[in-house]
Structure prediction request, 441 residues.
Amino acid sequence: MSALEVQIDRIVGPTHHFGGLGVGNLASQLNAGQASNPQAAALQGLDKMRLVASLGVPQLILPPQPRPDFHLLADLGYRGAPEETLKAVLESDPALLSAAASCSAMWTANAATVTPSCDSEHGMPVMTVANLNASLHRSIEAAATREELRALFRSGVRLHDALPGGAALRDEGAANHMRLAESTGKRGLHVFVHGDGKPAPRHHWPRQTLATGKAISRTHGLREADVFHVKQHPDAIDAGAFHNDVVAMSHHDLLIHHELAFAPESESQMLRLERRFAEISGKCLRVIRIHSEELTLTDAINTYFFNSQIVSSSNSGKPVWTILCPVQVQHHKQAHRLIQRLCADGVFQEAHFVDLGQSMDGGGGPACLRLRVPVTEHELGCICKSAWWTESLDSDLRDIINERYPHRLKLADLADAEFCYKALETQRLLSSRLGHDLAGR
Ligand code: SUG
Prediction:
């Protein structure tokens, strides 16, 4: 196994708006009803993909999923011509219109949980599409995500359907999963983070369950000794960390987490993790625990410090670790100082600050916007060619976005059938440029 890690991002769709739909997601709730800028959102995402690709990291691009989802509206009893349907939904249930038009699939870290071939008894990469059952607007992503992952990886992966089981098996994908492995990528340990169980958070509903982590570790063919089920700290969930990747980040043999990321009951699992890592690799897991005096939980959540995206590449044979932080980190004294310290200590060779304002206002930072897939050279070669980032693809996608995306959108604009037809047509254009034929749904 090499240490290659593919990053999969998705173009933000033309119906991107602030619906306030994110369960326990403070930014989403705070910005509910504000005017969004879909064009800026899509370009900001593409700027990050360009940066990642320029670092020599394999970058794949997915098209937006088709929105509004008229099938959802029809399934819920809104039938008839789109012109009337959209107006009727806006009037009777605006949150449903928002859900049907949501571009939340942009946050691909929630798309699936991924196990590389070297860790699985199946001997091939395994992916489980996340059911995203904690919220309506996200639960409608799974069916198309499955088709997209199948189109990207073809027969090269064992692709599992979203877990059944409704609320009991709430699954938000890789946002609550960390794979730790020595830097050559050989044999990884898998940490599944859940929020249910006692003590429970007082204000927000946990989005991931222990039963989900257990099911995925079984179906992915992981060795029991290499799996760790860790409970998220209820205070973190209540402070607005609705996913683990808002309070912890990891890459290869590095784990950086806030001291309030994990519940005290999980201490023994964390110790077992460190012991197991040393046992299988002969090396120490590098754990950096950030204390509240260095960065409060509130500041961690406001800046999305822990949602920075870590990537690595090599320069003349030397590894280069790069961290892509939200620009909010640069503007925050303590958070910025922490990044400077991590760079001075040699944890990262480079730091970049990226403006993802439109995604951040929906509660998603750099790491939310990518699904990482560790692959071998051979597996890399089997991935669908048309989805790879290239200069000419980037330029064509930008042309479509600049020409067809709105600069300003509010929920009421989504009741305009002409606008929605154009949005669906734009999605089809982007899909076809990316070689996907998913416009059917
Ligand atoms: O599920 N926001 C997303 C943000 C997901 C962030 N992902 C990770 N942390 N990996 C969510 O809460 C907001 C939609 C709205 O407000 O319209 C939203 O769905």
In short: The longest helix spans residues 38-54. The radius of gyration is 21 Å. Residues 18-22, 25, 28, 102, 104, 107, 109-110, 138, 175, 242-243, 245-246, 362-364, 368 surround N~2~-(3-carboxypropanoyl)-L-arginine (CB under 6 Å). Residues 111 and 145 are 7 Å apart (CA to CA).
